[in-house]
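Cross-check.
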Amino acid sequence: MVPRIMPLSCCRAGGAMPKTDEDAKKPASEAVPDRHWKLQVFYLCFYGFMTQIRPGESFITPYLLGPDKNFTQAEVTNVITPVLSYSYMAVLVPIFLLTDYLRYKPVLVLQSLSHISIWLLLVLGTSVLAMQLMEFFYGITMAARIAYSSYIFSLVAPSRYQRMASYSRSAVLLGVFTSSVLGQLCITLSDVSFLTLNYVSLGFVSFGLILTLFLKRPQRSLFFNRPDGAVDEAVPSEMDKMAGGDGGRGTKGWRDMALCRMLREVGALAKQPQLRLWSLWWVFNSAGYYLMLYYVQILWNEIYPSTDNRRVYNGGVDAASTLLGAVASFAAGYLKIRWTLWSELVIGMVTAFQAGLLLLMNTTSNIWLCYAAYVLFRGFYQFLVPIAIFQIATSLSKELCALIFGVNTFFATVLKTIITIIVADKRGLGLPVHHQFFVYFGYFTLLAVTYLLAAVGVGIRYSRHKQPGELALAKEPCQAPAELPPGQEQSLDAGAMRA
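Predicted model, tokenized:
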């Protein structure tokens, strides 16, 4: 309302390669884990699609503010919604580690149970405390998305990572789009009440729990469950290098210290200009982006407090923004420019547009104009996401890549929580939603100015040196990789995140 899984070669690898003599000599790590992997991938994609079918999700805020629950706007804005940020930050790191240690399936079961808890509380809860508990479970479901987005990599050989990841991500996006459209059609055409829609959502998430129980629990994972001999006669992974190159046979040694050593390596990698720039973008812009998502439905209700449910179009807007985000992400893969030269300028211009859209959303009295600004705001963000992924992951091993995205997401969550405490929480300033959006506008304006000033600095340095070494043409990142790092899939299925 979360981290690229392969070495550099996998970031560039697409589908299966033509069969050669080398294929017969593939190491164990390239072997397909199960001969029924196609069926397992299909089932996982079906599971990903079905678990996104929650038609009441786009209408939770009007449901809380309406006659069914009758909470005040101040309670929803300053008491209930802030719990989501706190919960997400509290459980993000433990779930990140447990996902790998427990091999995915138990965390997916936890996610399904949390979804059921959310809708039981929405249907049966009547107190502010119950709604705060609902937001706590919502934070768990958000953090647990890493389990689904990384599960796929335990089912297939590395040569198929990118294509299979694109399938699983597409299933999620299609589920989000279908859920939003279904919810809107029920509200607008069938005059279904918000309460009934939440009962329907409860049925779907309960079915999702049943589907989870039939998922196969993988035997291996990225960090804690690496099979013995998986890298024999092959290029060792980052974890094996950290352990002294003894491959899978030294599991006890690298479990104790490799993660810490990799974190130190991440700190050293932060000196690379492009990796540092796009990591900072991920931290600062993602924090602002999700704060907008959390509170935008409250803003819509303030601009257009309709008493007729049929005139609430949250589901349609979420569907449109999801579709535009998918198109923008796809289009970004075909943008061919010298990113070492133009990154700051592109980020600065996009951030400036987003700042303007936030100001428009907050000052207009036309709900349709506010809807349009919201859709464009999300589209701009989704446009930069695959570019950031590729710029960060282009020269990293799969383990370092996962850690960097995990660290970036954690810092973004911490920043988002700090802003929530200061701006939204009643124990801080407790600002109403319009004032909060002015703060978010100022936040994005400051970011835009910073990026544009950095772009001016890059331009000045480039003009002084016709061919500066630090501005040499980057490796062509014209095609963003199809796979997402585990846990970052939330960036592309944010339509499932409600305010």
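Residues 433-464 form the longest helix (32 residues). Confidence is low (pLDDT under 50) at residues 1-33, 229-256, 468-487, 489-496. Passed to J.P. for a second look.
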